[in-house]
Protein backbone atom coordinates (compact mmCIF):
# COMPACT_ATOMS: atom_id res chain seq x y z
CA UNK A 1 0.00 0.00 0.00
CA UNK A 2 1.01 3.60 -0.50
CA UNK A 3 -0.38 6.74 1.07
CA UNK A 4 0.56 10.29 2.07
CA UNK A 5 0.51 11.28 5.75
CA UNK A 6 0.09 14.91 6.79
CA UNK A 7 1.61 14.79 10.29
CA UNK A 8 4.02 12.75 12.43
CA UNK A 9 0.99 11.46 14.34
CA UNK A 10 -0.54 10.14 11.12
CA UNK A 11 2.70 8.33 10.30
CA UNK A 12 2.72 6.85 13.81
CA UNK A 13 -0.88 5.70 13.40
CA UNK A 14 -0.06 4.01 10.11
CA UNK A 15 2.83 2.22 11.79
CA UNK A 16 0.53 1.12 14.61
CA UNK A 17 -1.70 -0.47 11.98
CA UNK A 18 1.22 -2.47 10.61
CA UNK A 19 2.33 -3.45 14.12
CA UNK A 20 -0.95 -5.31 14.72
CA UNK A 21 0.11 -7.87 12.13
CA UNK A 22 3.64 -8.48 13.45
CA UNK A 23 4.93 -11.23 15.71
CA UNK A 24 8.22 -12.38 17.24
CA UNK A 25 10.93 -12.96 14.65
CA UNK A 26 9.55 -10.43 12.19
CA UNK A 27 11.89 -7.86 10.66
CA UNK A 28 10.69 -4.56 9.22
CA UNK A 29 13.05 -2.59 6.96
CA UNK A 30 12.46 1.18 7.15
CA UNK A 31 14.05 3.17 4.32
CA UNK A 32 14.19 6.84 3.44
CA UNK A 33 16.54 9.79 3.60
CA UNK A 34 17.39 11.69 6.79
CA UNK A 35 14.29 13.33 8.24
CA UNK A 36 11.92 11.27 6.10
CA UNK A 37 10.23 9.90 9.21
CA UNK A 38 11.83 6.50 9.78
CA UNK A 39 12.22 6.93 13.52
CA UNK A 40 8.73 8.45 13.75
CA UNK A 41 7.36 5.35 12.04
CA UNK A 42 9.28 3.01 14.37
CA UNK A 43 8.04 5.01 17.38
CA UNK A 44 4.41 4.55 16.33
CA UNK A 45 4.90 0.82 15.85
CA UNK A 46 6.82 0.43 19.12
CA UNK A 47 4.09 2.25 21.06
CA UNK A 48 1.44 0.00 19.57
CA UNK A 49 3.53 -3.02 20.56
CA UNK A 50 3.56 -1.86 24.19
CA UNK A 51 6.83 0.08 24.46
CA UNK A 52 6.25 2.85 27.02
CA UNK A 53 9.60 4.69 27.28
CA UNK A 54 11.13 7.11 24.80
CA UNK A 55 11.83 5.80 21.29
CA UNK A 56 14.62 7.76 19.64
CA UNK A 57 17.16 7.10 16.92
CA UNK A 58 19.95 4.84 18.16
CA UNK A 59 22.58 7.34 17.03
CA UNK A 60 25.55 6.58 19.26
CA UNK A 61 24.84 2.90 19.47
CA UNK A 62 23.79 0.57 16.73
CA UNK A 63 20.57 -0.50 18.35
CA UNK A 64 18.06 -0.38 21.16
CA UNK A 65 16.10 -3.22 22.65
CA UNK A 66 12.85 -2.19 24.31
CA UNK A 67 10.94 -4.34 26.76
CA UNK A 68 7.39 -5.10 25.71
CA UNK A 69 5.15 -8.22 25.63
CA UNK A 70 7.17 -9.13 22.55
CA UNK A 71 10.49 -7.23 22.86
CA UNK A 72 11.09 -4.63 20.18
CA UNK A 73 14.49 -4.01 18.58
CA UNK A 74 15.34 -0.76 16.80
CA UNK A 75 18.51 -0.65 14.72
CA UNK A 76 20.02 2.22 12.77
CA UNK A 77 22.70 1.09 10.32
CA UNK A 78 23.42 4.62 9.04
CA UNK A 79 27.06 4.47 10.15
CA UNK A 80 27.63 0.93 8.95
CA UNK A 81 29.53 0.55 5.70
CA UNK A 82 29.20 -3.14 4.93
CA UNK A 83 29.02 -5.66 7.76
CA UNK A 84 31.69 -8.24 8.45
CA UNK A 85 31.02 -11.49 10.34
CA UNK A 86 32.19 -9.97 13.63
CA UNK A 87 29.87 -6.97 13.32
CA UNK A 88 27.03 -9.25 12.35
CA UNK A 89 27.76 -11.22 15.51
CA UNK A 90 27.10 -8.03 17.50
CA UNK A 91 23.85 -7.37 15.67
CA UNK A 92 22.39 -10.85 15.61
CA UNK A 93 21.10 -10.85 19.23
CA UNK A 94 18.83 -7.90 18.41
CA UNK A 95 16.84 -10.19 16.12
CA UNK A 96 16.51 -12.98 18.65
CA UNK A 97 12.87 -13.25 19.75
CA UNK A 98 12.09 -9.64 18.89
CA UNK A 99 10.10 -7.67 16.40
CA UNK A 100 12.96 -5.77 14.78
CA UNK A 101 12.85 -2.44 12.92
CA UNK A 102 15.91 -1.53 10.87
CA UNK A 103 16.67 1.99 9.64
CA UNK A 104 19.14 2.14 6.73
CA UNK A 105 18.69 -1.58 5.97
CA UNK A 106 20.59 -1.02 2.69
CA UNK A 107 23.78 -0.72 4.77
CA UNK A 108 23.27 -4.22 6.18
CA UNK A 109 23.83 -5.89 2.83
CA UNK A 110 22.98 -9.58 2.72
CA UNK A 111 23.45 -10.17 6.44
CA UNK A 112 20.03 -9.07 7.61
CA UNK A 113 17.24 -11.62 7.96
CA UNK A 114 14.59 -11.27 5.22
CA UNK A 115 12.18 -8.44 5.97
CA UNK A 116 8.52 -9.27 6.58
CA UNK A 117 7.62 -5.73 5.55
CA UNK A 118 9.55 -2.99 3.73
CA UNK A 119 8.58 0.59 4.52
CA UNK A 120 9.76 3.41 2.25
CA UNK A 121 9.28 7.01 3.35
CA UNK A 122 9.76 10.11 1.18
CA UNK A 123 9.54 13.84 1.80
CA UNK A 124 6.62 15.51 0.07
CA UNK A 125 6.80 18.83 1.93
CA UNK A 126 7.40 20.01 5.49
CA UNK A 127 4.46 18.13 7.00
CA UNK A 128 3.69 15.50 4.36
CA UNK A 129 5.45 12.20 3.74
CA UNK A 130 4.67 9.48 1.26
CA UNK A 131 4.68 6.10 2.96
CA UNK A 132 4.84 2.89 1.02
CA UNK A 133 4.51 -0.47 2.79
CA UNK A 134 5.35 -3.66 0.90
CA UNK A 135 4.39 -6.73 2.89
CA UNK A 136 5.34 -10.34 2.66
CA UNK A 137 2.37 -12.32 1.33
CA UNK A 138 0.56 -13.63 4.39
CA UNK A 139 1.15 -10.58 6.53
N1 LIG B 1 3.97 13.33 7.96
C1 LIG B 1 5.08 13.18 8.70
N2 LIG B 1 5.49 11.94 9.06
C2 LIG B 1 6.62 11.77 9.80
N3 LIG B 1 7.40 12.76 10.26
C3 LIG B 1 7.03 14.03 9.95
C4 LIG B 1 5.86 14.28 9.18
N4 LIG B 1 5.74 15.63 9.03
C5 LIG B 1 6.78 16.17 9.67
N5 LIG B 1 7.56 15.22 10.25
C6 LIG B 1 8.78 15.51 11.01
O1 LIG B 1 9.89 15.01 10.28
C7 LIG B 1 10.89 14.58 11.18
C8 LIG B 1 11.18 13.10 10.92
O2 LIG B 1 12.25 12.74 11.75
P1 LIG B 1 12.67 11.24 11.99
O3 LIG B 1 11.46 10.39 12.20
O4 LIG B 1 13.73 11.24 13.05
O5 LIG B 1 13.31 10.88 10.55
P2 LIG B 1 14.44 9.82 10.15
O6 LIG B 1 14.51 8.77 11.22
O7 LIG B 1 13.99 9.30 8.83
O8 LIG B 1 15.73 10.60 10.01
C9 LIG B 1 10.35 14.78 12.60
O9 LIG B 1 10.83 16.01 13.08
C10 LIG B 1 8.85 14.83 12.37
O10 LIG B 1 8.18 15.58 13.36
MG1 LIG C 1 16.11 7.94 12.37
Describe the structure in your own words.
The chain has 139 residues and is of the alpha/beta class. The chain has one domain: Rossmann fold, CATH 3.40.50.300. It has three helices and seven strands, in the order βαβαββαβββ. The protein has helices spanning 8-19, 38-48, 85-91, and strands at residues 2-5, 27-31, 63-66, 72-76, 99-103, 117-123, 129-135. A seven-stranded mixed β-sheet has the order 1-7-6-2-5-4-3. Strand 3 (63-66) and strand 4 (72-76) form a beta hairpin. It is globular. The model has no long low-confidence stretch (mean pLDDT 95). Bound molecules: adenosine-5'-diphosphate and magnesium ion (MG). Magnesium ion (MG) binds at residues 38-39, 57, 76, 103.
Secondary-structure blueprint of this entry?
Elements: E1 2-5, H1 8-19, E2 27-31, H2 38-48, E3 63-66, E4 72-76, H3 85-91, E5 99-103, E6 117-123, E7 129-135
Helix pairs in contact: 1-2
The structure holds adenosine-5'-diphosphate and magnesium ion.
Amino acid sequence: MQTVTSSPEATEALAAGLAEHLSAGDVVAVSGELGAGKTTFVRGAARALGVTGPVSSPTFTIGHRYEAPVPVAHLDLYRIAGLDPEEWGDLEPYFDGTIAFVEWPEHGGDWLPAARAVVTLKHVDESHRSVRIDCDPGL
